[in-house]
Design brief:
123 residues; alpha+beta
């Protein structure tokens, strides 16, 4: 999924889950789809307005944006997990990361660090 994404599979309450936690800006920069269509997702990240992601981006520009995701695989019994199950699974991801490992980095500093790693550029 990427060097900067913690991903793991777990069975919880009879459901197979895939859980991920990652830095959203870094994931956007490193995503395979970003590298194959140069600048496409970068532009979307910068110019989109009035979306949930845009609101989150704007609120977190001074500290960064970490995203937690859970994919719940539904087997052929078609049992759907409850909202409580989903919320508890998401909360568990957040509690999994010790607070002393959590730090803030503004988007500007993340971008500078990313650019400093370039060896070649199309510009």
């Amino acid at each position: 999924v990427g060097r900067n994404c913690l991903t793991y599979m777990e069975e919880i309450g009879g459901f197979v889950t895939r859980q991920k936690i990652y830095n959203k800006l870094v994931q956007s920069l490193e995503s395979q789809s970003v590298r194959s269509v140069v600048g496409c997702h970068w532009r979307d990240w910068v110019v989109q307005q009035e979306t949930r992601l845009a609101a989150a981006r704007d609120k977190s520009s001074s500290r960064g944006l970490t995203r937690a995701e859970v994919t719940i695989y539904i087997d052929n019994t078609c049992q759907i997990p409850s909202e409580k199950f989903i919320e508890e699974t998401l909360r568990k991801i957040i509690e999994f990361i010790p607070s002393e490992l959590v730090y803030s980095t503004p988007f500007s500093k993340t971008w500078e660090a990313y650019c400093d790693r370039f060896i070649h550029s199309l510009i």
